[in-house]
Amino acid sequence: MSSIKISDDKFPALRAATLTFPAIDNHAHPLLRKESRNDLPYEGVISEASGQALAKDAVHTLACMRATPQLAKLLGLPDTATWEEVKAKRTEYDYEQLCKISFESMAIDTILIDDDLDDRNAVYDIAWHDQFTKNKSRRIVRVEVVAEGILRRLLEPHLMTDTLNVVPILRDFTVAIRAALIEHAQDPNVAGFKSIICYRTGLDVSMYSSQAGLKFSLLDVFKMLQAEGKIRLAHKDLNDLVVRTTLEVAGEHQKPVQFHTGLGDNDINLIFSSPARLQQVIRHYTRTPFVLLHSSYPYTREAGYLASVYSNVYLDFGEVFPLVSAQGQKSILHQLLELTPTSKLLWSTDGHYWPESYYLGALQSRHTLYQVLGESIELGSLTEAQAVNITEKVLFRTANTLYGLDLTP
């Protein structure tokens, strides 16, 4: 990776584009409600860890050390403020004002929000976020949550029985999940779908689910509902069926399907989070646009390869801002640009829960984009005009076309 440092005034047109051109945040989550603002560990702004790894270790990362003065500046603290001082200040800061200052200089035009979280009662609805953007936010539907809702509705009437006839329930589920996905695909407020199968059973989605495997999966789901009163879809045959159905419906209605890939918390099986494992379904569902989330880090080059050889694969580079160090972020963007067509890159903050996560994601990614494209100009790989064009595509134009948003920057 080049070690060239591009001064802020070196390429003025590029700097203006990277820092101020309107952006479509193609993947994010809702903010916590005011009354829930302090319910979750604030270190989640700079780390996907949990437990002691979050409470004790995350503050010792370069990502945290970089974010601390940036957050201090946002909150009106001196650059020398500590992480604990930043945490204390933000808890006493007026929440509406904190949300406002986190968004006001980030030029986010619209947000595509995955709101199907476990703690939906603790977060604002999608429309609430429109006060911070020029255009209204759209929804990204998490398909595993849709499937779990349908399974609950089908299985709950049988909770008092000792046996379960899975054949008709499986048939009803197959019909119902397809109908529900079609309904979402036809909703103008829905921009696309998202699968978290990476967290559940891994990205090696099979093209076939055996009837025996589906029956066993359904029985296992039923036993969990009986014993724990909850449903969590984590059975390969059933999960693969849901994803394949999603890919079919999405292809018919030209809705992108986002896949969590790579970087995540400790609930993920890292080995099965490489986007290369999706290659079979990418080849088969050629009409369906695939969006690989989070730069697929640490499988960034694999993701770039897929985007370069399959016309239906796009690559998002959110979440590594601000979770990875500054040098790591530059390295990731350089790796993406090794093979990925610049018309296939999508920008996002992966903002979630805390307004500052949107702020840091936008601030760091815009500055890094300037540095990396500036280095390419310096090396003679690009002209400044080409770099500006790339910036506009990455931040706005590609997502606008892909998700059919029909917006004007």
The overall pLDDT, averaged over residues, is 96
CATH architecture of the largest domain: Alpha-Beta Barrel
Q: Tell me how many strands there are.
A: 8
Multimerization status: single chain
End-to-end distance, in Å?
32 Å
Pfam families: Amidohydro_2
GO molecular function, one term: hydrolase activity
Protein name: Amidohydrolase-related domain-containing protein
Domain Amidohydrolase-related: 180-364
Itemize the secondary structure elements and their pairings.
Blueprint: H1 12-20, E1 23-28, H2 51-57, H3 62-74, H4 83-92, H5 95-103, E2 108-114, E3 138-142, H6 143-155, H7 166-185, E4 190-195, H8 197-200, H9 211-228, H10 236-253, E5 257-259, H11 279-284, E6 290-292, H12 300-309, E7 313-316, H13 320-323, H14 326-339, E8 345-346, H15 355-378, H16 384-402
Parallel strand pairs: 1-2, 2-3, 3-4, 4-5, 5-6, 6-7, 7-8
Helix pairs in contact: 1-15, 1-16, 5-15, 6-7, 7-10, 12-14, 14-15
How would you describe what is shown here?
- The protein folds into 2 domains: 1-136 and 264-409, Alpha-Beta Barrel (TIM Barrel), CATH 3.20.20.140; 139-259, no CATH class.
- The protein is an alpha/beta fold and 409 residues long.
- The longest helix is centred in the C-terminal third of the chain and has 24 residues, at 355-378.
- It is 48% helix and 9% strand.
- It has an 8-stranded parallel sheet with strand order 1-2-3-4-5-6-7-8.
- Strand 6, helix 12 (300-309) and strand 7 (313-316) form a beta-alpha-beta unit.
- The chain has helices spanning 12-20, 51-57, 62-74, 83-92, 95-103, 143-155, 166-185, 197-200, 211-228, 236-253, 279-284, 300-309, 320-323, 326-339, 355-378, 384-402, and strands at residues 23-28, 108-114, 138-142, 190-195, 257-259, 290-292, 313-316, 345-346.
- It contains 16 helices and 8 strands.
- The mean pLDDT is 96.
- This is Amidohydrolase-related domain-containing protein.
- InterPro entries: Amidohydro-rel, Metal_Hydrolase.
- It comes from Macrolepiota fuliginosa MF-IS2.
- Residues 180-364 form the Amidohydrolase-related domain.
- One of its GO terms (molecular function) is hydrolase activity.
